[in-house]
């Protein structure tokens, strides 16, 4: 799958750089050509000799290396790849990308390129969770930078938490997803997934039982067909797929904003179980028990994201697909829902307690469109996703 693909690999300065040596090996085993770029800090962790020996190519290090410029300028170098991979992507490299800095070879290449970029962040957990890095992550997501990881676990510095660079094989999978060629190549698709959490006070929230499994499987299946996927997810149980642009949100209102920011798209799939209501006024401090009295909560209705997008006058996606979670009269209710919201297809499912569908691994769906009602046999959510993704690909050609 990676045969003759050209990867420009930027190795930043972090202890995880040692895994990038294995990454080079794994990529070359699969037939990819790896052109390595080592930052100054990266060279403190792995030697240029090991990098170039494994890559079978010279390692680029300095912006002002005249030999390199006469052979290949930095602009050309930045554009001569099918994909730029930054692994490890340090907090500093991410900040430079956000700020558009160009003060060394790596940052200049990232600013000059028109090639897709995939980052594999790696840093201390506190740095990963710092507000500045969170802001930078959100900006990079919005800029269309793909990411893989980081994973949670023990860190070299003794801390525990998210911040470990994804494993080489996970990065390879993300690279394959980013480079895949299929019927959805060139198509941009939005998928919403997971539940939303609507805060009541700093410690309590309204939620639902959605695990995010169906939406995640669908995003993965669409990406496998070559689509560029923007995956807007609430706090789900299952991790997001590799190789897609992940936008994490908590509330329905944030989900709407993220969806609007992702437009225009060719297709939009709304698999999220969005909370219909939020508490009208979130309490800024923890609500306390009062003697004998029960708390009074006033609700406000959340925006209907599916209906908003279905009824867009400008930039309405060519295909809008909603899901209908029902417990009674599934087909009748879902048919009415499709008309009311104005979407093209509705994927209806019975989420009654006995079905084991919500939070389970299987799904039993009915696809409702203008053409009619199709009852699919019960199957794994992954299979539902693959079949739906193919139908979506067909509808967009
Ligand atoms: N949906 C949405 N925004 C909302 C509520 C739902 O985008 N505020 C989307 C869901 O992602 C799903 C579809 O609308 O694709 C139907 O969701 P569902 O919960 O079944 O329907 P509701 O709109 O909540 O209608 P009802 O409460 O009548 O079942």
Structural class: alpha/beta
Write down the CATH class of the largest domain.
Answer: Alpha Beta
Small ligands present: cytidine-5'-triphosphate
> What's the overall geometry?
globular
Number of DSSP strands?
A: 21
| Strand numbers in spatial order across the main sheet | 12-11-8-13-16-17-19-20
Low-confidence stretches: none
How would you state the average pLDDT, rounded?
92
The major sheet is characterized as: 8 strands, mixed
Tell me the number of structural domains: 2
What is the helical fraction, as a range of percent? 25-40%
- State the end-to-end CA separation: 24 Å
The appropriate CATH architecture of the largest domain is: 3-Layer(aba) Sandwich
Q: What fold name goes in the CATH topology slot of the largest domain?
A: Rossmann fold
Mind telling me the CATH superfamily name of the largest domain? CoaB-like
How many helices? The count is 14
Percent in strands = 15-25%
């Amino acid at each position: 799958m990676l045969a003759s693909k050209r990867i420009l690999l930027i190795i930043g300065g972090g202890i995880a750089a040692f895994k990038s040596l294995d990454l080079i090996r794994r990529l070359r085993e699969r037939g990819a050509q790896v052109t390595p770029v080592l930052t100054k800090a990266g060279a403190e962790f792995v030697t240029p000799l090991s990098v170039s020996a494994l890559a079978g190519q010279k390692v680029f290090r300095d912006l002002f290396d005249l030999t390199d410029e006469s052979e290949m300028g930095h602009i050309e170098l930045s554009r001569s790849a099918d994909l730029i991979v930054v692994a490890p992507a340090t907090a500093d490299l991410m900040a430079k990308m956000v700020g558009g800095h160009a003060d060394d070879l790596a940052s200049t290449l990232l600013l000059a390129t028109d090639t897709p970029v995939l980052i594999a962040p790696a840093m201390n957990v506190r740095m990963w969770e710092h507000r500045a890095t969170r802001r930078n992550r959100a900006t990079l997501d919005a800029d269309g930078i793909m990411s893989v990881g980081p994973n949670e676990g023990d860190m070299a510095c003794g801390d525990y938490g998210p911040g470990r660079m994804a494993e080489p094989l996970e990065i390879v999978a993300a690279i394959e997803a980013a480079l895949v060629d299929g019927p959805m190549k060139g198509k941009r698709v939005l998928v919403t997934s997971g539940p939303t959490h609507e805060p009541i006070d700093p410690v309590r929230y309204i939620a639902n039982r959605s695990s995010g499994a169906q939406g995640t499987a669908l995003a993965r299946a669409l990406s496998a067909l070559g689509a560029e996927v923007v995956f807007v997810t609430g706090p789900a149980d299952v991790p997001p797929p590799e190789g897609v642009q992940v936008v994490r949100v908590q509330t329905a209102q944030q989900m709407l904003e993220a969806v609007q920011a992702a437009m225009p798209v060719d297709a939009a799939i709304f698999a999220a179980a969005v909370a219909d209501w939020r508490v009208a006024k979130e309490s800024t401090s923890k609500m306390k028990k009062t003697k004998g009295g029960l708390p009074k909560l006033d609700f406000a209705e959340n925006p209907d994201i599916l209906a908003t997008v279905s009824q867009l006058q400008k930039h309405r996606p060519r295909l809008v697909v909603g899901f209908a979670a029902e417990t009674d009269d599934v087909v009748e209710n879902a048919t009415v829902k499709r008309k009311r919201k104005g979407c093209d297809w509705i994927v209806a499912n019975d989420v009654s307690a006995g079905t084991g569908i919500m939070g389970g691994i299987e799904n039993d769906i009915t696809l409702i469109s203008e053409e009619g009602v199709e009852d699919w046999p019960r199957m794994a959510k992954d299979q539902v996703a693959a079949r739906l993704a193919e139908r979506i690909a067909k509808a967009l050609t």
